[in-house]
Each structure stands twice: as structure tokens, then as C-alpha cells.
């Protein structure tokens, strides 16, 4: 059978000033739980912010904190899978087991959220690219993207760390 996994129940908050709070829940992937998987880069391990996990303080990287902050809903919990929280980072055995089933974790998710980092001026290029469905449409956009600022924005976006990471 498939190993059980932990998911994060990101608790809601009506105010952005509230600390990030979550609960870990254990589920069986074969039961097709409803969750979204988060794909992101950890970022600088020396730059952390505290969140509350199961009523305990836990340090997470600034990049993960930003993703959780942006994903948190106002009225209801959001269930996600994020490796830094859902895999016991102190346990070599847990890391080994969970890495072996990571493909299933992403495949079973209702969707995968790619967190590229906080919004910058270059993020605007995503608005003109979000409707692209085919390589032909991309080529048409490329041909019409004559403004150097758009090309520079796309180049800057593609230089974000998420695009250069390896599995």
C-alpha cells in the first residue's frame, strides 16, 4: 500500500496581521484526499519566520511563509501539501519514505500551486501569458512582444530560482 502522508490544514484568518496557524493531518493517499500541493523553493535557510503548527512554534523560510500567507483564506481552512511542513525534516527515514512517494503526492493533488515568490514588476508579464494554451500561441505572442520591457520582464521572471531547481 501507499504510505500515509501528512497534509497541512492552513487555518483561516480575517486579518492579515494574525499569525499563520496550521494543523497537520495524516491521510492515506489511496483515499484520494482533497488537497493542493505546493511547489516552491525553500529559499535562504537562515531567513525564517515563526508560524504555529499544532499549537507549537515552528520556523519556516521566508519564501514558504509568503506562500502560506498568500494562500490563507479568510473564512475556511485550506488543505495543502508542502514538503517542509509535511515531511519530518528531523527524520532521515521519513524523508526517504516521503521522497519515494512524492510523485504520487503531486499526482493525487487536486492541483499543484507553483509559488514563484512575491509579486514584482516582472510578474505583470503573466497576465498576457496566462491565456496561452499552445506553442503556436506562444510563438504569436513572442512575435508581437516587440516591447523590450515585455521581453525583459519575461526574462526576469524566468530567472527566478524555481525555474533552475532540480529534483
Automatic annotation (TrEMBL):
Please name the Pfam families in this protein's record: HET
Residue span(s) of domain Heterokaryon incompatibility:
35-167
Q: What is the name of this protein?
A: Heterokaryon incompatibility domain-containing protein
The record lists the organism as Aspergillus sclerotioniger CBS 115572
Mind giving the lineage of the organism this protein is from? Eukaryota, Fungi, Dikarya, Ascomycota, Pezizomycotina
